[in-house]
Amino acid sequence: MIIRAKVVVTMDGPPIENGAVAISGERIVDVGRFSDVAKKHSGEEVVDLGEQALLPGLINAHCHLDYTCLRGKIPRQKSFTDWIRAINAEKARLSPKDYVASINDGFAEAKRFGTTTMANLTAFPELVSRIEAPIRTWWFAELIDLRDPSRANEIVDFAVEQLKSQKQWGLAPHAPFTASADLYRRCQEIAQRENLLLTTHLAESREETSMFRNATGELYDFLKEIGRDMSDCGGRTPVERITGGNRPYLLVHMNDLSQTDFELLNKSTTKSSIVHCPRSHAYFGHSPFQFQKLQELGFNICLGTDSLASNEDLSLFAELRTFRQKFPNVSSEQILELVTVNPARALEQNNALGKIRTGFLADLIALPITTSTSAFEEIVACDRPVSWSMFSGRILA
Ligand SMILES: [Zn+2]
Question: How close is the Cα of 78 to the center of ligand 1, in Å?
Fold first, then answer.
């Protein structure tokens, strides 16, 4: 099959005007100017997308589909800690059936907005076998042991049992304020043994920093009250708290960083990937995200939507638009890399996803465009569902 479009935005060199992509099975077998591709693959069915840009399917590097049903349920709170209280109250009302419905609805919505790959955290790994993901999904078990750190190994091992038959999965110790040092250690051990990806929330809020540095603040008081062992608080930043272990983490948020954190990050030999969630960031009013500085240090920066408990929808295009408003000096091409090339690298798929290139998986999307020379700008400004998409070589309805 040959797909022709006004412009093919490969993310692997300049956009190709009047371009085409040849597909065989689940893979891309050729890409170039339409005239060349059509000649080389004569006799193949041609799907002409007309006045559209064809680009790689988008990759959401951080999401919690468990909470799709919480859209609009939690108004902005006075503090991050109040938000945790509010989401806990909402969660207490939900059943496993609600979570399954929530995850399925989330997939459908993400797909409509051109997402073809997702790093999804779930607090319920036991529900995953009941779900058929319609897009490429890395299932990360979100792990918390704050009420009973003596059960750290047991909690991790249970999640491993639930997820190990999945094609793509990993472990997500939730955050240093909810997951013990033992839990992080166990995740490291298993990730190394099974060659798994790891992700964790880190340095998200000022309250988290205050808890670990000064053993004070709202989050400190709240967690102490619910019985967390607070003996690891005082004198260290959250970033200092999770160093150790050989497997890198896909680090989510990294908003509240001190000078010593930057020095530590500068010295670290494994440059992790960092996920920024622009609209969730704005919802909480976190400290400004240091995009330039982190990029200069060599971190691979990606975007995610986070959950609908702190966001409006699962459109990565909306994240691109918000990011552009905050960082007007970053080029549209570079912004599009944050949801294509960079997250593909973060998921160790830089030889299969994130670009339109021969041999890569045929996950493609298209949207209307007026001028091919402004393709990147028009894509980043897109504010509606995609008009066409292909997943693993199959055209989606
Ligand atoms: Zn998150």
Answer: 19
What the block records as the tokens of 186 is: 């166990």
Q: Would you state the structure tokens that stand for residue 72, as one six-digit string?
A: 């609009």
Distance 155 CA to ligand 1 centre (A): 19
Residues with CB under 5 A from ligand 1 (ion): 306
High-pLDDT (> 90) share of the chain, % = 94
The tens digit of pLDDT for each residue in 300-320 reads 999 999 999 999 999 999 999
CB 203 within 8 A of CB 237: yes
Q: How many CB atoms lie within 10 A of CB 271?
A: 14
What H or E segment, with its residue span, contains residue 323?
helix 316-326
Whole-angstrom Cα distance, residue 13 to residue 297? 24
Asked if the model's pLDDT at residue 279 lies above 90, the reply is yes
Distance CA 190, CA 73 (A): 36
What is the average per-residue pLDDT within 264-273? 83
Can you tell me whether residue 290 is helix, strand or coil? coil
pTM: 0.97
Counting beta carbons within 10 angstroms of the beta carbon of residue 363, is it exposed (0 to 12), middle (13 to 18) or buried (19 or more)?
buried
CA 305 / ligand 1 centre spacing (Å): 8
- The one-letter amino acid at 238: P
What is the Å distance from ligand 1's center to 301 Cα? 15
Distance 331 CA to ligand 1 centre (A): 26
231 contacts 240 by C-beta, under 8 angstroms: no
CA–CA gap between residue 183 and residue 198 (Å, rounded):
12
Q: Is residue 264 within 8 Å of 238, Cβ to Cβ?
A: no
How far is the C-alpha of 138 from the C-alpha of 197, rounded, in Å? 9
